[in-house]
Amino acid sequence: MDTKGEGAGHVYIISEAIAKRLMMAAMKSEFNPKDIKELSKPNIGYSSTVQWGVDEDTIELTALPAEGKDSSGETVRGYVFSAKHAGTAPAAGSPTIDRLLAHIVKDAETLASTAKFSKLIE
């Protein structure tokens, strides 16, 4: 399994609903919408499969609740994004998660304020 995060060190100050919309838009840029599945609770995110010949990789894109410090030093809550893949086609999965994370970070930075990451919220 390969896991990556993007926008390292940033918490995006957005709601869960906005995080889900951003992730769905990123997933639709890579996968057929009918092949995208929502992750089961308590996870927040989506998964799909990429095929490479007879091999396949399952890709998961998630939003993780987090705390950060804004520019005035106040504690704020938001989300960080993570992607991982597992399966027999890592040559297809790894570039896909790179593109997903680049897409979501670009959109999140356009829409939201950021804070310096402090910790994940359980």
Task: Give an overview of the whole structure.
By secondary structure, the chain is α+β, with helices and mostly antiparallel strands. The protein has one domain. 29% of the residues lie in helices and 44% in strands. The chain has two helices and seven strands, in the order ββαββββαβ. It has helices at 16-28, 90-111, and strands spanning 2-5, 10-13, 37-38, 45-52, 55-69, 75-87, 113-120. Strands 1, 2, 3, 4, 5, 6 and 7 form a seven-stranded antiparallel sheet that branches. Strand 3 and strand 4 form a beta hairpin. The two termini are 22 Å apart. The mean pLDDT is 88.
Following the backbone from N to C, one meets helices and strands in this order, namely: EEHEEEEHE
SS summary, helix count: 2
Q: How helix-rich are the residues, as a percent range?
A: 25-40%
Q: Which structural class matches the secondary elements?
A: alpha+beta
- Show unreliable segments: none
Cα shape: elongated
Kindly report the average pLDDT value: 88
In total, the number of domains comes to: 1
Number of beta strands: 7
Strand content range: 35-45%
Computed CA radius of gyration, to the nearest angstrom: 14 Å
Main beta-sheet strand count, sense and barrel state: 7 strands, antiparallel
How far do the termini sit from each other?
A: 22 Å
Furnish the topology, listing elements before pairings.
Layout: E1 2-5, E2 10-13, H1 16-28, E3 37-38, E4 45-52, E5 55-69, E6 75-87, H2 90-111, E7 113-120
Helix pairs in contact: 1-2
